[in-house]
Design brief:
Shape: flat
Strand content: under 5%
Oligomer: single chain
Structural class: mainly alpha
Largest sheet: none
């Protein structure tokens, strides 16, 4: 009984989070459509650039600890 209740709470939390995320996404796409001539600024950052710097940051942190 306890497990079922916690599972329901988890599912409710996940669905509310998804609803919030989809609402945010729709708002962003609506704003992007309104300001489509500013699309350069709305492009997501390059994952390669940020991912690489993040990984190097993690490696630097680990080697710094040793």
């Amino acid at each position: 009984m306890l497990l079922a209740r916690s599972t329901t709470q988890t599912l409710t939390h996940i669905s509310s989070t998804l609803l919030r995320a989809s609402a945010l996404l729709s708002r962003l796409t609506r704003e992007a459509r309104l300001h489509h001539h500013h699309h350069r600024y709305l492009e997501p950052p390059s994952p390669k650039r940020y991912g690489g710097s993040f990984i190097s940051f993690l490696k630097r942190g680990k080697s710094g600890d040793l």
